[in-house]
Amino acid sequence: VVRQVRGTPGFRVAPVLLVTRAFANHPEGLPQELCDEDVVHVDGAPTDEDSLRRADAPRAAAAIILADRESDAVSDAISADVAARLRAMAEGAPPQVVTECVDDRNRARLIAAGAAAAVRPLRSYPEMLARALVAPGAERLLEDLFSSEGNELFRVDLPQPYRGGWGRIAGTLLEKGLGTAIAYRPPGGEVVLN
């Protein structure tokens, strides 16, 4: 997640701080991989205002709240509490908050608590959290593509190579209501993204 956030314009040099008790019993503290990313750690619970104040949360520009347990919907209540605390503590503009949401039925509650976006916990794809932070709403498209309902990606093999321009084929697909062209593969070549 840190690399994805830092790979985004506007967050390249942003300080990253973790508020968690996850490393309390590790004698070496924060793993070296996080230290190498210049991550700072505050040992404490994100539901504890003192811990959030030690992390300078009142002046935070952005926050990502990871679900306490990615398969337990009770985590959504904890995340809503943290989002509301961050909003209430803000000195000035509230931070841009992105939170994981275990149960889709809790999305509206998380948004009402102060989150700009609520994303399913897909830990294998930290890009979604970074996208939600930078462009709230973009994560919904990505989630939709990962689910078995809603939009779907598919490939169309043509009987012969297409020789026209990209705009023409993309426009035709849109006009006919067949979808949005996002990539193509020339004969014998690698996929080219739109």
Describe it:
This protein has helices at residues 2-6, 32-36, 49-54, 74-89, 107-112, 127-134, 138-146, 166-175; strands spanning 16-20, 39-43, 62-65, 96-100, 117-119, 183-184, 192-193. It is of the alpha/beta class and 194 residues long. The strands form 3 sheets. The protein has a 3-stranded parallel β-sheet with strand order 3-4-5, sandwiched between helices. Strands 1-2 form a two-stranded parallel sheet. The protein has a two-stranded antiparallel ribbon with strand order 6-7. The protein is elongated, with a radius of gyration of 21 Å. The model has no long low-confidence stretch (mean pLDDT 88).
Task: Provide a compact summary of the structure.
With about 190 residues, the protein is an alpha/beta fold.
Produce the secondary structure layout.
Blueprint lengths: L1 H5 L9 E5 L11 H5 L2 E5 L5 H6 L7 E4 L8 H16 L6 E5 L6 H6 L4 E3 L7 H8 L3 H9 L19 H10 L7 E2 L7 E2 L1
Parallel strand pairs: 1-2, 3-4, 4-5
Antiparallel strand pairs: 6-7
Helix pairs in contact: 6-7
How are the strands of the largest sheet arranged? 3-4-5
- Given helix and strand content, the structural type is alpha/beta
What share of the residues does DSSP label as strand, in percent?
5-15%
What level of helicity do the residues show?
A: 25-40%
The tally of beta strands, per DSSP, is 7
Termini separation comes to 25 Å
Order of helices and strands: HEHEHEHEHEHHHEE
Low-pLDDT regions: none
Quaternary structure classification: single chain
Number of helical runs?
8
Cα gyration radius (Å)? 21 Å
